Every structure is written in structure tokens, then in C-alpha cells.
Amino acid sequence: MATALLYIPIGTQTYGPIPGGPDVTAAIGSNQAEIIKIAANGNVTVDGSFVRDNDCLEILGLSGDYLISANVAGITLTGKAGTPSAGALIKIPAFDSDGGIKLTFNDVEAALTTADGTTFVLDGPSNQTITGTEAAVNIGGSGSGGGGGGGGTPGDTIPLTVAADNLTGTGNADVFEAIISVNQNGEQTNQLQSGDRLNGLGGFDTLDAEVQDASALNGAPRSEIILRTSDVEHLKIEAQQAGSSGDDDAIELDAEDAYGVEMITSSFSDASLIVYNVNTMGDGGPSDPNNGLDNGRPTASITLCMDHTAPENVLFCASDFEVYFDADYLIPGLPTAETTIRLQMMDIDNNFLTGQPLLTNPYDRLFVDLPGGNAGFVNPDATIVIQPASFTDTGIAAYQKLAAAIQAGIDANANLAGWTAKVGDPFSVVDPDGDPGGNALIQGWEIEITDPTGTVLTSNNFAFGASGSIPPQTDYQKEVLVDRGVETDLITSLLCVEKVGQGGDGGDFIVGSMSTYGVERFILEMKGNDAGDNGVNVDQDSSIASLQTTNNALREVILWAESDVTADIVIGNSVTDGYVPNIYNHYLVSFNEAMSYDDDYCGHLYPDGNPCDLTDNRNNALRDVQLFTAAGAQGRSALNSEVDVTLYAHLSDAFTSKYLNLIDDQANAAADNVRAEYLFSGGDDHLNMNVSKSNFAYQGAATREDFYFFASMGEGDDVVEFQIGDGYFGGYDIQPGDIVDAVEGSLEQVQGVFNDSSHWYTNHLVNMNAMIVTGGGNDFVHTWGSTAVDIQVGGGNDIVFTDNSGGGYGSITKESDYYSSDFNCCRATWVFNAQTYKSPAQVNDLLTFGHAQISNAVNVSIFIHYQDLIVQWEVGDSWTSVNGVTIDDLTINQAIKDAINNHEALSSFLVAKDGPGRTLIVESKVDGEHSVTDFGFVIGRRTVGKFPESLGGTAVDLTPLQAASTTAKEFTDYTAAQLNPLGFTTAGTAYFSSDDLDPGDGARWDSEFGWDGGKELSGVDSVNVNNNRVWGSTGSDDIALSSNAYSVEHIVIKKVETEVFASQASPDYIMNFTAAIEDAFVPAKQECQEICLTYDVDSGEFPPGDVAEQPFAVVITLDNGSGGTIVRTVNIPVNATAAQMNEAIRANLDGVSVAGGTIEAVIDDNDTPADFSDDCVTIVYPTGRDFDLASVSIVPTAPTEVQTLTVSGGPNPVATTVVVTLDGFTSGPISVAANATNAQVASAIATAIGTSGSLVKATAAGDVVTLQY
Length: 1269
Hints:
With 1269 residues, this protein is mostly beta strands. The strands form 21 sheets. The chain has a 16-stranded parallel sheet, with no helix packed on it. A 9-stranded parallel sheet has the order 38-41-45-47-51-53-55-70-72, with no helix packed on it. It has an 8-stranded parallel sheet with strand order 15-19-21-23-25-27-36-39, with no helix packed on it.
């Protein structure tokens, strides 16, 4: 009689039937819900994963044909002689009260349950008889442990001694306890030693052991501890250091003779723990005929956990956990064969014209002809109804919605159970008739449908259909491609973490092989909560130095958690090594061209490379993984929005040989594409990715088109940092004509022009094979150095930096002495409140001015400008003070810091910090050469809007309370003698003292660059060429493009203002938007920006329908190309149609003079009848000019409703406050002085509303306040 091992893969819902006969089938499942069908005379033993109260055995016989019995091992169903079930022997392991399993016979369903772990009841409907139900099955007084799921009936706590122990459990869930103790000689030693033998018998037994280095006699070498256990399911080890020298002395356990293990945990370890020679044999080991050396369980049958392991600290190095399987036990799950159906759908014409690839797609049916079903498509076996099939979204967003619609259509078909749809790889097509696309390629994304059962299909089994008419003279792509998957599963390990690092930086988690290869898939479960969640008082976040296997075998990482878990995880921290062993001899990373390493006392190697780029030693935390997902896979659900994931990863030069088919002789070039996918869920996630240049390099005579990188961040406030190698591709000696000449030559000439001998960037640009997509939330995306990435941000106020490598150590410039400057990576830096007239303003050694102040100030504002952006901010609490506040030089510092670090746009591009003494330092976050006057400020009276009085701003009237004060002073009330010591003139500009040795260079508040050594920190332009494409979305997006003059980057501004009367407009701010000189491969294009009226006309928001029901204005601020701004206001009247709105914008902007020529404004007419959600006005600038900032806002131009508010009952004898609540606005407390008249209260109300930022207009006349909405 032979034993066959059946591994039910994770995510499988139904399997079988398992055939009958004398041979035994040992069924091994997962913790997911599963159904196994068993022949009536089946001989099956199921493992503990099937008694977790979520599985079912479907036995294809009558219930009366079986006898039920039990012993300490569990419950047995035996077929009765003379029935079709004769010969059946179905074994189910015992379980505790929280377990159970459902049995379905041909005549009845029954639940096998227990209340106490000793008496088991097979309970069916009351009107049916099941053998064994009336007399419940009793295992006996010994009870039973749980099978595989942990827990079970509590057993004994069995202590070990310092001698060689030979111990046997009770059959319940026993705990073998071993501590670090003292022997008869007074020496500290382990109770767990190599001479111990432990047998747990039944139940889920645990070895709970404290261990240090194995003791040795008379100074002999220390050795590993050899474990000899049988039927001890959980090895729970607390590894302890033998001293506090800081040495990383790992505790080693040899598990070659540990049998029946289901879990290994490093628990509260201070030292590193290494468990090796791990096998997956059952309880009996090699002596059990059902096991044997060649009959191990899948690798995934053992769960490996790090629990509260120690961080690197003042005494010890971080605790690592390393588990190495005997290579014979790297066993995958049940082989599977998936079929992949790839749909290519595109509205080709509109994709060329508007970037909307599914705008008028009419194909809303996909007919499926399944083998063995109805032949043909007249009566198809399944119809996938795609509702809707057309979308107004641009780019990948349209395909994401299409995938969701197709999934809904699949779910409605019982014949397609288990099929899934998602966005797949990009594809490109040519416009068939050349109109409007010519011969150019246009890109879309495949929809990838997976059939997990592996049905044999071809493209002939599918047909597209349309329920409506197909628009004439429009070109569509509609094609079905089918791939049959490889019939295999990956070698998988189940991992779990809880508070790794104990709030600090934890160690490595390495699971691999003793010799060849390693583990291919990690399924990592997160445990724990944040403080305050589920009764937890402290955060239980985990920080892992690295997640690795041996020999670079790891391909997939699936991150998941139960729905109530809220703890976060970091993969990659300060103790991540700068090298990883056993990775095809690739011992050192190559993030920087000149990499050196510093060794710390724990033996970690840290790269001493470019401090200004994005990647470092932490990127070795995860290497060459093709799929990382927290968005749900392998039957695991996506992480909830409370869980934040931080991941540092690297796709090295080994990725190419690991995945890519370099022979690639298939007719379809994309058929063997390797898509590196990094998918996140709803938390505030952080991805830092470095991709080796070799993944974009040449292979023979053709470009490496197989590789594609895709990151999808999901919802939440996410951060993505992306860099290719050291980021360098460029040269400082390029002349404008060189690239034009190169376009007419070969790709090799282009490489030569850019002073770079490698071809990686050329291929990267040609294939455009990297995409980053963020969902909702306020996201930050930064691609450093040379990249050509498709960046698509979602809703929210997003920040995008492309390149930003100017002045960084990775840059090669003619001014090589910039290498001597560390401060702010040579980006522009200004200093204030510093005495700089005697020597340059050294940022690390500034000489401060002394204290100065003015008193009793009210309504004082600071007006900060950065390039074309102007912001008004309160100084001190002067806006709300009645009698005035003291303003000194530190108050000015604080106002600047508050404005810069909290304003949406300023905080994206600048940061303000305290300098030495009373000085202030303002640093640019973006590179590029700046003028000293790009940043500065004045102070003065508070005004309506953002402009100071000197630029036409209207001062805000004092409140009645401030006007009545005998001490309050406006800024204009101060004399020069009072303002000059504080550093200001009466006009609010910087004051230059006549005592300065160099007047004009020594004022407190004039704009001056800082110095670092012998270099002025004015910023440096990047030398790295960029060709990114950035898609803006809703909200206020702040975008800094490459400062390299030869970069050609594309940006689409899509403004979506569903709340026109919101109190805050949401403009986009764009830096370094430089018109193309020439692209390396296509003719130069003029710089363009788009203004789109993209209202949701079906939401009921303004303006509903197809006309404007209220008047409003579109205010457009443009850079004139010469350092100034152009503000254009386009008034939209009531009842304006979509066409009239866009024509008004176009007519207002067309022909406006800017540096180098005039603006050309045209309308992109993407419209469909009665829907103006996609009309765009494109602004085309003169070629070859730099236009830095642009913003668009929508404001009302006329009141639509008037209300009055009358104040009565005054004067009030005591001081009080008034709160005014309007629709969508609450004023907050308005102070009313004692004995204030009705008119004074009305004036205070009008002032509070008028200065609140609300779009409600308020005026006071006597005791009446008029409100205009």
C-alpha cells in the first residue's frame, strides 16, 4: 500500500474527487476554506488544516454505510463490508472546541463538532439518522490536542533539566519548557541540549526554550544544539546573548531530527537565531512508512515567525532569524495550470486625439464558447456583459475601470467561477488608416483574465459583440490572445511577524536552502496593532532589515493580515546590509558608480555613496522580486487602510538572467514579457525602488523590450521614490545642434552625444517601460536622475519631482568642486537675520543679528514670494489681537517658517529651518540654478487676497474692537526709527543700515544665498536627460520637472472642480516647465499646457446639465517667460454652453504676448452631445522658451442669493462672542466688547466673514449685515 501526498494549493476552493482503492492519500490544505470530494471507498487522511471550522469533506457515499470511531489521534470513518463504501478509511485529526468540519454525504450533511475536545458529535438533521450520532464519539479521558491549527486541549507543562532528557507528552497540547539554568558546577547552561529527546504524542505541542550558545567542556569549541523531537509542532525559541560585547553571536539549532514540525518562532530573541537542516516529514520521521525521506510535506506546511525580536541597541546587534531547509524539502504545492486570456481594446482615434483610449468603445459583450458546451456563439456558454464599456478617463485609469466592469461581468456567470480580471501589460498599435495617428504607435493596456482551472482555450473560443451601433469612421482595436500557463506551483513559505525590532530597527528574516536554490514565494502575515487599537497600549509595528532567500530564488512576496490588524511594517532599515550573500556571487550593490563601504561593529556594510540620491543600503532589503503585493493574492485579502507598508527594494543586474527570455524567438514580442509588479493597498505606503540599468540594456541587435516595471500604490497618502542605477545619463558638453544631428544618425550617435557609453537610457526611452500609478490621497512621487516614466497621480494634492539630481554627488559637471559641498545637496539656500557684510554667509557658521522688536502691532502680514508664487501669512497673532502683539525678529522667523512649511505649494518646493543663533535658513527642495531674488518677502498691513499694498492689494479695515483700542497699531503707524532696528523700512522692505561696511549686502531680511566653503549655494542644473510623462488629476498638484535644458517632459493638467464655490481654489504649480529644444528621437514640440473644464455633470454639482446656471470666472496665471506673470480672467456668463465656455477661454488666451512670441490657444474638441466633461483648451507656447509656473482657479463672479442679518438688542453690558453659521460656513467666535453698539457688532461680523476665506461676501451698513452668496 502506497501513500500519495495531495497538496491543496492556497486559494483552491474545490478539489477532487480523490479516487478509491487501497492506496492512502494524505491531503494537506491551507488555512483557507476548501472542499475535497472523496470517492465512497476512498482511503484518505486529512491534516489539521481541515478542522478549522471552514472546510468540507464531500463523501460520495451514503451516511449509513460508514462506522465512526475515535482514539487519541482523531476520528475515523470506516466503510461497512458489503456496501459501495467497503474499504473506505477516512481519518480526521482531533480538534478543540473552536474547530470543526462539515461532512456531506450523498443523503445528508452533518457537522462534526466538539464542546470539550474529548467528545465529538456528528450532528445531522433531526429527521435523519447518521451512524454514531446518537452515541457521541468519545476519545477517552486523555483528551486530544488540536490538529495543525494551534491551541487544543491544554496539556501539561513539562520542564527540561540540564541533563539529557527523554520526555513524552500526554497527547494534549503540552509545553516542553527549557530555560537557561545553572548546572551542578554553578555554570550557566541551557536546559535544551543535544542529548534531549522529546515526543509530544497527540495535540499541538510546543517546545518553549530559552537558549544561548551551547555549553562546551573545558574551553572546547562551542557547537550547535541538535534537536531530536517528534510530534512537537511548535519550536518557540528565545535566543539570548552570552555577553554584551556587541558581537553578533548567532544561536544555531540543527533540526535534522525534528519531525512533525508545523511552526518555528524566534520569540523575544536578543541574539540572532539560525535553524538549519529543516525537514517537512511527519511525526514519525523517516521510520514512518507514510513519511520516508522522499515524502515530505510542502515547504509551506511549516510557518516561520519573528515575534518581538530585538533591534540593534547599545548592547547587541539586531536579532536576525534564519531558517534553512534541507534542499530535498523545498517542495511546492499541488501543480496547477492556469489559462490567461489577454484582451486588447482601444478607441484608437480618440486615444491619439485626447489620450482617452476607451472614449467611444462600443464593444460591451464578450461571448465565451467553452469546450464541451454549446458549440459556437449563437447560444454561448457564457456572455461577459461589460457595463459600461466606454470611459472618459485617460491612460491606465480607463483600463482599470474596464477591468472592474469585466470582473463584474465574469462574476455574473456561474460557468466562469473563479475567473479574475485585472490590468495587464501595455500593448501598442498603429492607426489602421493613418488618420489621425499617421504611422506612430499608440499605447493601451491589456486586460488579463485568468482561468485558474487551466481550461484549454484559444482565441477562437471568444468573440466580441456590441449591443448598440458602432460609430462609423472610427478605428478600434479588439483582439483576444490566449496563453496556457506553466503547470507548476512555486516553492512557498508561510511567514509571520509581530513587533519585529520592538520599536527599533529589527534584523534580517532569511528563509532558504542549505545548498541549492531557495524559496520562491513568501506569504507574509502581519500581526499586531497600533497603540489604542484592540486594547493594545503600545505600537506593535515591525521593522525588518531584509526579507531574503538563498541563491536569489525569491520571485513573489504576498503581504496580508487579518481585518483587525493595524500594525505597520517596514522592510529595509538602518541595519540592512550593503551586501547579500549567495546571490549568484553578486555581493555588492551598484547604486552608485563609485561605491565604497564602511563596516560597523555589528559587521553591517553601509554604502558610502551619493547622499543626495534616493537609494542606499536599505534597497538590499528585497532583491529581484517580480511580484510584491499587499493588494490581495493567493486567497489572501488586501491589507486594510490602517496598515502602512514601507518597502525598499532593488531589481539588480541578476534580474535579467533570472526572468527574461533573452532568446525570445516567439512571433509575438510581448508573449514572454516579464512584468515587475509592486502593488499596495489602502494605507499610507512608501516604495523606494532602484532598478539596475542592465534591465534596460541592449541584447544583441535589438532592445530589451521584455522588461516592464509597474507600481500601483492604491489609496492613502503614498510616497514613491524611483531611481535607475546611479541615475546618470547625460553630459555637460552637449550643444543644441548635437541632438538634432544625432536624430538623423544612429542610436549609437545619440549615446555619444550624451557622453554616456551605455545604451540603457536609449532603450528605456524607446520602450517607455516603467509606470507609477498613485490612487487617491496626497501622494509624493520622485524619480531621481535620468528616467522616462509614465507617472499618473490620482485625486488629492500630489507632489511630483522628476530628476532633481542637479548638484548631487552623482552628477558630473564642469564645476567638479561642487563635490565639496554637502549642504542641501548644492540646492539653492537663502539665509536671513545674519550679519553677512564682513564675509560670505557660511551656512554652518552664521553670525546672527541681535534682538529687536515693535509692540502693540495688529493686522501685520508677511508676503512671501517664490518665483511667481505669492503667499500672505499672519505675523504672530496680530490678526486676531485687539490691543496688539509684540513682533520681534524671532516672530518674523516663525512666520516665515509657518508659511513655508505649511502652505500647500511653498511646502512642496521649500523648507525653512532655524539657523545658528537667531538666523533663519530657507532651503529649496528642488534643484536648478536660481536667482537670489527668486525668494524673498516684505511685511505690511493685512490685505484682501495675497498681494501687498505695494502691488495693489487692498488693506483690511481694523475691526471695531481694534479701532477702539488705545494701544493697537497698524504697520503704517510705525516710524522708520521704530522699524529700522527690526530690519524693515516703512514700506516693509529690507532695511540696509548705514553702518554696514557694505551697504546692500548686510541687511537682516534681504535675500542672500548661503555659502558652503567656497561655493555659493545658488543651485545647479541637472546634467541628466529626462523624458517623463506626468498626468495631473484633481486637487492642487505641485510638480517640479527636470532642470536639464535638454529634457523633453510632457504634462497634462486636468482640473476637476466639482465644487466651484469651495473656499479654496486648487491650482497646479509647475517648476522647470521648459519647452523642448529637441527630443532625441522625435522632432521638438512646443511646450503646451491644458485647461480642462471636467465637471461631473451627473453628480448634481455645479454646473448641472450642459449650461452654466451660475456665472463664474476662470482665472489663469501664466509665466511670461521673462520672470513675470500674466493673469488672465475669463468671465463665464450664466447659461453659457460648453462650447461657449471653452471658446471664451481660447479667445482670451490666443495671441497673448510672451517671451519669444505669442501664445496659440486651440480647443481639443473631445465632446459628446450634452456632456462637456472633456473639453480642453490647449495653450501652446513658443518653442525653446522656459515657462516655469502655471495655475488655474475657478471663482464666482456675481452673487446668486442675497440675505440680510440685523443686529438688535445692543448695547450689551458685558463682553461676549458671536458665532455666525451659514450654509457651508461657520465664522468661529467673534469678539464683542462690553457696551458695543449694534452697528459695531454688525461691522465685526462683516469683517470676520470677509476675511475668513469664504466666498460669501459680507458688508455692513448700520446694524444690517448683507450676505451675498
